[in-house]
Specification:
Elements lengths: L7 E3 L4 H10 L4 E4 L5 H6 L7 E4 L9 E4 L1 E5 L4 H6 L1 H6 L1 H8 L4 H6 L2 H5 L12 H6 L28 H7 L3 E6 L2 E6 L19 E7 L5 E8 L10 E9 L5 E9 L6 E2 L1 H7 L6 H14 L10 H20 L4 H8 L6
Parallel strand pairs: 1-3, 2-3
Antiparallel strand pairs: 4-5, 5-8, 6-7, 6-8, 9-10, 10-11, 11-12
Length: 342
């Protein structure tokens, strides 16, 4: 049985109190909200903070508010996001992504902030301490070698968050608070393509909220590849959003790939190829090819990297067909073993 290491727990009631604690213990403390990612990592001794700053009692981090678009507190649970009708109707890609995270039990605990800050994953890293010790550890924790590519100068663990690709496709921004002040950045600027230092968030900062812009004329969707129809992390995901004119011309587009790099990967060439035209069979096929060309999956998750790269084209095609208005309910059921998400 894997047990948690000893730690001291702090339960602040305000964002300010939490920020002050992080400032006081920058090398010792980590944030915990739902704990669905951090606590298993601590049991495997992947992360060993001596102090945890719990955010469950911070009321200001919770809730979904209408403003100029939508603002979602980072402490809002994934279940609450799935149940919100404004998210479901106006930001459907985010709704689909949140609905596909893990299982209902974990969505009841897991938060939006926790999911967008999810630790990167790798077959060589996500093992217990004894297993990792037997192979001489890896670059991400306690070792010097990336076992995915032994000559790589950086860790290649992959970004496995579901909501982040959807939020990038929707043009979201995030607010971060520290004892020194507040800053607001595009969510794409929150990530680095580095399996160890995958966030630009400082150790003393708290992600407090996610801001979604008003998206008049936009449609969005999220498709997730995994072995089972629930619970599993993505081994490939596609988030897509397009702005369509009244006549069906694509005025703007974003396509974002998940689980093929250490950060959500924007397929800019694929998205740009759609602008100015309609979502024809030919345009969709070209975008799929360009996205697959940009995908760089590594051999550190389930399924082979060659197959995951190849099906990138198919999943982009599925996503764009849905945005065109095709009935893809049976396709979702066949490919994803899921229903009710279209």
């Amino acid at each position: 049985m894997m047990r948690l290491p000893y730690f001291q727990y702090h339960a602040p009631r305000t964002v300010r109190e939490a920020a002050d604690l992080l400032a006081a213990y920058p090398d010792e403390a980590m944030l915990v909200a739902g704990g669905t990612d951090l606590l298993p990592n601590m049991k495997r001794r992947q992360q060993q903070p001596s102090r945890l700053v719990g955010l469950r009692g911070v009321a200001d981090l919770k809730g979904i508010r209408n403003a100029d678009g939508l603002t979602i507190g980072a402490g809002t649970t994934l279940t609450e996001i799935v149940r919100d009708m404004k998210v479901r109707t106006s930001y459907r890609g985010l709704w689909q992504a949140a609905a596909q995270v893990a299982t209902p039990h974990l969505r009841n605990m897991g938060t939006l902030g926790g999911n967008i800050c999810l630790d990167t994953r790798c077959n060589y890293y996500d093992q217990n301490y004894e297993w990792r010790k037997a192979i001489d550890f890896c670059m991400k924790k306690d070792g010097a070698t990336c076992w995915v590519a032994t000559s790589s100068p950086r860790c290649l663990a992959v970004s496995s968050t579901d909501t982040a690709p959807a939020l990038v496709a929707l043009g979201a921004e995030v607010s971060l608070v520290s004892a020194g002040g507040t800053r607001r950045i595009p969510i794409t600027a929150l990530y680095r393509n580095d399996g160890i230092h995958y966030l630009t968030r400082h150790a003393t900062e708290i992600v407090t909220s996610v801001h979604l812009p008003p998206l008049e004329g936009w449609r969005s969707t999220y498709w997730k590849l995994r072995r089972r129809g629930s619970f599993d992390f993505p081994v490939l995901s596609v988030a897509a959003a397009v702005q369509l004119s009244a006549g069906g011309t694509v005025e703007a587009a974003r396509i974002v790939l998940g689980a093929v790099a250490s950060r959500p990967s924007e397929a800019d060439a694929a998205a740009t190829s759609l602008v100015g035209g309609s979502l024809t069979v030919e345009a969709i096929a070209q975008a799929g090819e360009l996205a697959a060309k940009a995908a760089r999956p590594m051999d550190n998750t389930d399924f082979s990297l060659v197959w995951r790269k190849r099906v990138t084209r198919d999943f982009v095609t599925y996503a764009l067909r849905e945005l065109r208005g095709d009935d893809v309910r049976e396709l979702r059921k066949k490919v994803l073993r899921q229903s009710g998400l279209s």
